Target: TRAP transporter small permease protein
Amino acid sequence: MDQEEQARRNAGPQHAGSQHLMDSAVVPEAVDEAKDKDFRVSPRIEDWVGVIVMVLLVAITFINVIVRYFTDESFAWTEEFSVFLMIVLALVAGSAAVARDRNIRIEFFFERGSEARQRRLAILSALGVAVMFLALAVLGARVTWDEYTFGETSPGIGVPSWWYSIWLPVFSMAIVLRALGLMARNVRALKALSQQRADRDAGGRAP
Model:
């Protein structure tokens, strides 16, 4: 019994190394190990937009609380603008998550099999994200055009509704581009794995 316990302890560092290798295989190396500067368009852009949106949300909420405390009234535009900013924040955060391959997924299925299989699943996942947000961008553009054509205004402060809705197709297209970039990185990684396997097979057949 003591020998088995000692064996498990000795295997600890090796197990940790294996887990690191598994994690590196699950998450594409280009987005797991590389820094943001290695992206052609750094996802820090989305980070900064998210920070600005959060600052605006906090400032609007704080101002509204102060005004309501002293006057028992609130600015009519705060709720409408806050909802708009929260939607922007969700889309920007989604774009950054797609760029860094940090979207939620079922790891039970994703971690099974070889690294090549995981890369193929990652390609399929990125393609699905791109298709979904491309459809959202098209539908959002149609909604924006209808609101512009019919001159619809927002219910809170009466500004043109398309001022808000136009950002849905814009950020959706940003997510589409991030998903295509992620898919391209996984395709390159899959080709590199295939080349490595071919080189090993050629080396094994050499006399």
Summary: The first helix runs from residue 2 to 26.
